[in-house]
Amino acid sequence: MYVHFFKRGLDLVISILVMPFLLLLTAILAPIIYFEDKGPVFYNAPRVGKNGKEFIMYKFRSMKVNAPDLTMADGSTYNGADDPRMTKIGAFMRRTSLDEFPQFLNVLIGNMSVIGPRPDLKRETELYEDDEGEKLLVKPGITGYAAAYGRNSLPWHDRLKMDVHYVHNISFAFDVKIFFKTIATVFKQEGVYVEQEENADPEKNQSS
């Protein structure tokens, strides 16, 4: 009942309430993002959602135009504190998670939820092992169990295990716990960056 009805209702209410703040945030950040390198304000990130369906995830652009993709040794996307691809405003948005706020538009549309596993790139889903693909049984979220309890500091496959645990134990109480833990994690700026920075390898695809 919660997953199929109540959760979607909460998503709609929360995303509608956030819209005025998102508009204000856009008015403040858009000129800063644009004038730093004259690039687009938003980055339309292709991701894989529920049941393997691809969709466009909205973000404020935090990286330089045409920045190459960098990956960790395990195939996950690189996200280090010394990432040369990030703009100055992008580094600030990444630390505070402000770059993720446009995803409330995805929640309003219905291809994301407020709480759920963070969505992966198509190439990352091809590297899933064992039951890790079960994270695709639910809508991806703006934040989730792995995002709240470790963020990017955890090894990728550990995060995937936490995503699968969430799918198997999803409930209103679990979502509330993740929501408030996310606020604390973002406020303390914990786990923003990967720790194994030396394992990053450059690729040629744009990432943001």
TrEMBL record:
InterPro entries: Bact_transf
TM regions (residue ranges): 12-35
GO molecular function (one): phosphotransferase activity, for other substituted phosphate groups
Keyword hit for Transmembrane helix: yes
UniProt entry keywords in alphabetical sequence: Membrane, Transmembrane, Transmembrane helix
Pfam assignment, any one: Bac_transf
Domain Bacterial sugar transferase, first and last residues per copy: 7-188
Name of the protein this chain belongs to: Bacterial sugar transferase domain-containing protein
Lineage, highest ranks first: Bacteria, Bacillati, Actinomycetota, Coriobacteriia, Eggerthellales
